[in-house]
Amino acid sequence: MLSKTQREEMASRVGAAGAAWLPGELMARHTSLGVGGPADVIEIQDPSLLPRLVEILHEYGVPWRIMGGGSNLLVVDEGLAGVVLHLARARKRLEFQEKQVEVPASQNLGTTVMECAKKNLGGMEGLIGVPGSVGGALRMNAGAYGTQIGDVVRSMKVFRGASGRVETLQPGEMRFEYRHTSFSPDDVMLSVLLELPERPYTDILERVKQCNQKRRASQPVNEKSAGCIFKNPPGLSAGRLIDELGMKGTRVGGAVVSERHANFLVNRFRATASDILKLIDMIRERIFQAYGVELEEEVIIWRDIAKLQ
Ligand SMILES: Cc1cc2nc3c(=O)[nH]c(=O)nc-3n(C[C@H](O)[C@H](O)[C@H](O)COP(=O)(O)OP(=O)(O)OC[C@H]3O[C@@H](n4cnc5c(N)ncnc54)[C@H](O)[C@@H]3O)c2cc1C
Fold first, then answer.
1. Residue 227: which residues within 8 A CB-CB, separation 6 or more?
2. Is there a domain that residue 212 lies in?
3. What gap in Å lies between CA 142 and CA 149, rounded to an integer?
4. Atom 40 (ligand 1): residue with closest C-alpha?
5. Do 17 and 83 belong to one domain?
6. Which CATH number fits the domain that encloses residue 232?
7. Do 127 and 197 share a structural domain?
8. Ligand 1 touching residue 135 (CB < 6 A)
9. Does ligand 1 lie within 6 Å of residue 104's CB atom?
């Protein structure tokens, strides 16, 4: 635990290094679920500062995590002891070269899909409507409607928290699986080179429209959520299992199992993280009793960092 003086000194060094120190930010304001207590956030405009900033945190023994758009995060009500690093949304443009495009990790995913479409590059249409950043999508291997981002990755620039070095990884050096990747929590994606199939803009737009319609028809897109809470067990649909048990509409505090999609838990009535966690436990228990299936969370839960290590 840092003293007040050490904390102030660290904050001023972070500022001097060129990043913004935002103490005690309510994580509820940074996450799509709209829950989560306070954490100190460092907002980074220039990703090249990352090694220096992490070095400073290291000197003070302060643990850190990296946040993207906050659309797959459930942060506990007590808040977080360490620091949350956030790469500010990229001002840098996407760099195209034939079928390849270099994208900063802080870029919005939906914007990326549409910018590529304008260059007649498709292959990511299914990802339209997945909120958040490209970095978060890469970490999660985000996917929908038969597309997952890992399929179009050619190489990736990553800051390795463990060594403090920036590396460019080739396909054989990274693994993308269903909502799982081979990266460790202290790897930070900085940028990615995507290779995309050429398709006429109008075809891509048509597919994007279809995906958007499907999403709006089947998901509670106007409510606060983190998308699917659980991963689908092999060969099964978590949403269907929850629905079959008649759990749609089940409520704990302000958290509700969406009536539109049973794998979406929505923050409808000023839920706390604790409400959502209780609902998660209740569902997991009911599913295990009924089917003997252990549901695994897709949402990333951020508890006190000390328990993470
Ligand atoms: C309405 C809704 C619909 C959704 N639909 C889908 C869907 O169809 N398919 C799907 O896959 N997901 C879906 N999601 C979940 C979520 O949008 C994705 O997982 C998204 O890719 C997360 O990106 P993010 O930037 O918000 O990441 P965050 O939520 O900020 O972080 C998620 C994880 O990524 C890590 N991370 C973030 N940025 C970086 C970085 N630069 N380097 C390294 N690690 C990083 C974080 O540490 C954390 O572990 C949905 C969510 C919502 C709210």
1. 71, 72, 130, 131, 264, 298, 299
2. no
3. 6
4. 135
5. yes
6. 3.90.78.10
7. yes
8. yes
9. no
